[in-house]
Model the fold of this input.
Amino acid sequence: MAQDGSATDSSRISRRDTRILPVDVSKICSLNFSDDQEPFLGDWTMDLRDNITDTTNLRTAADRMRTSDIPVAFPTETVYGLGADATRSSAVRGIYEAKQRPADNPLIVHICSLEQLRGLLQPSRIKTRYKPSQPTELERKFGAKWDIERYPPDPIPKIYRPLIRRFWPGPLTILLPNPTDSVLAPEVTAGLPTFGARMPKSLLALALIKIAGVPLAAPSANASTKPSPTTAEHVKHDLDGRIDLILDGGPCDVGVESTVVDGLSDPPVILRPGGVSIEQLRECCGWQNVVIGYKDGSENGTAPKAPGMKYKHYSPKATVVLYDAGSGQPSTDVVKRYLGENRSIGIVRTKTWERGFGLKVVEVSNSDQNAAITNGDHEHPIQDNLSQPKLADCPINGTTPAPSNLPKSNTTHTTTAAHAISITLDSADKPIQLWDIALGNKVETIARGLFSALRELDSKNVDVIFVEGISDSEGDTAAAVMNRLRKAAEVHVTL
Done:
């Protein structure tokens, strides 16, 4: 990091040999939870099978987290993260350097248990028990009063407890007060009196944090301003030569980052939309009046309270032209206006756009003959069996069935594919190449494929990417998708 606090110039970072290490946690571990606690919110342990490559890969990454200043990329349920020991300044600075991230953009701290979080909020009380597993005879006699006198108050603010019970582990980040005797590296908070924390739902992420034994500061594992990565290959594309290790757990489930909330304000505020909706938040005690506190554009001029608020994000190299839902599709004149020397355009379709905007198709690539004949045909996914292992895939307390609030068994995801078409804009023009990606009608599928679609079209060296937006009113996942797209777009077409 430069003396002025900005990220170090990329030319000063020595090139490294970046390796991708596959890990299927469901094959190498079993989980043990205390009977009186929700899974992962109370005490839990994990047994690993030795002499397996996946176990070696996981332990190698955890050891690097503890000892190295070079961050490690790993999957979560939202996007891939770039993690480092949140308590060591030299390690956290490595994140900023690898990503070329502005130094005033705070990082989210990832934890694997409430016990670990309490240790961050009250460093002098690490290992303090906040709830007895079995009440003593005196506790049965004197009840709650004795419990309060024997066990110190929980440092986690009460406003967050309903959210933690409902959404953790999961795609929700909460803003917490950073204590004066904080063990967190000051670079984590970027000088703010608060820090964001979340418990990821990815078993691989939880296992990594557990084995490392330290909280992990982790933004998305992409080069700063670029689309967030949802596969290990995306990370390699952006950070090859800048980091040593990428743990490959398959494509991510959610596809957009976590929702960030500030319950320290009155009323509570959503700082960033994500995987938990405003409707879901308002169902929780104390959050009925939660308000939106983010903008879709970059919020320059103020210190960002959460990642993704201040700077341009999620942008490919090509110009992105975003059309709001219901605002039509690009005309021939608009396509001509953005056509560059490559004579190639990209399209990301969702609900209503026709393939190739309904223009005359003169040629279809051999691999896409059947897919491109009919205008408006939306779904052409490629099957991908490398989905992330979920919590329910591991034995729980020695048995196979998982608690009901954990994710269900492994799901096969699909990856976005760009289909090549040649079209003509008018009879006098030479054909242009159009790369078409259809994300489908479902909001969850659109969210999961968005960043991958932008990266795929960028790899085709298109001059412009036209994107069909969706309605913000379809829920907070839709709002999160549109928030990211508006930050990525250079041109925004509205009704």
About this structure: The radius of gyration is 24 Å. DSSP finds 14 helices and 22 strands in the chain. Residues 443-459 form the longest helix (17 residues).
